[in-house]
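Researcher: Next entry in the queue.
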Amino acid sequence: MTVAVHAERSAWYLNRWNQLILGIIAMMAISSPQYVWTLFTGPLNQKLGTTLAQLQWTFSLLIILQTWLSPFQAYLVDRFGPRLLIAIGALLSGGSWVLSAWVDNIWALYFTYGVLGGFGTGIIYVGIIGLMVRWFPDRRGLATGLAAAGYGFGAVFTSFPIDSMIKSSGYAHTLLVWGVIQGVIGIVAAQWLRTPPENYQVTSAAPAQAIAKQQTKRSYSPLEMLKSPVFYLLFLMMSMMSTSGLMVVSNVGPFAKEFGVADVLVLGMAALPLSLTLSRITNGLTRPFFGWISDHIGRESTMALAFSLEAVAILVLFAFINQPALFVVLTGLVFFGWGEIFSLFPSTLTDTFGPKYAATNYGFLYIAQGVGSIFGGPAAAFLKQTAGSWTAVFVVVAALDALTAVLAITALRRMRQKQLAAG
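Model: Structure for this entry, 423 residues:
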């Protein structure tokens, strides 16, 4: 037994960087349900005889189940450990595609692709983020940024193969094959995921001085966290950034078409798909980049920098939105100023409330992304319809970004310092 315990402690997978790699792999395995959904809408509409509006409720259910149930999903990870729960999440996510291959009505699709897929991907997303903030007390921003980037980048490797298989073999065969592939990858990666020891610290590299002073000395339970005003300020700020970002994300296509740049060639490619490709890249890169910055200069200062960049980028984009080349570049910059919320907020939350209940605590905060997904698209459409132009949308987005930046270096910094001093 002593030999077995020693072998476990010295196993390769207990290296935290290997844990990060395994987490990124698990994240990449669940990215396709969200990011390649659009490839299945046409064939599914034809098969099921639905309208696009009816079909899109499947996607809404996926996102709602992934975000609004995240506290419960994260609690399960904290309670039963990442190895079991991440494997279950991968089984549900991959299985949702396999089962969706056989559905013959919209309600069955809602349950398979939407409910099962949303619950499975939600377990993995909050579980991996909660795990990384515990393994990397000194580099929480970088680690969560890399893990979150894996969620976005995974579809880069699957989009073209899935699109090709749909055209050659049909959507049902594609769902079956790729459901098995993605489920198996996630289950295999989960087998070596482990939670670090309680109060885990890194002896080889002390946390950056700016961050060490901003980290709590104890862990707060979810109930204790929910009694703290700091949590609600973080929730408000993340909701504002999610809403403003999704107001743009969900309307890039309409922007491009209304201002006449969608099909104009830039570097031999149409401006809109080129913009979407560049934006996906910048939206992934910004997560580890600003996470790494925050590990060195502090969370609030980085928030102020990134959110201010987003506000300026929005205003400059609006000024030059009818210029195809600038439209491509500036939309990429807008995404670069927004995607870092998925590394900065979980890092700040764990710095403030400790690592022991990190997954469950982040589950409550991640609901803010669900708030943004509900308000972002409809709010932008309502403003456009009411004002008769996109001007109001751009002004509101820039204002939300700027206000969140100010809150970061004023109210959030002051309230966190007060709580850390009291704790």
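Model: The chain has two domains: 2-190, 209-422.
Researcher: Noted, moving on.
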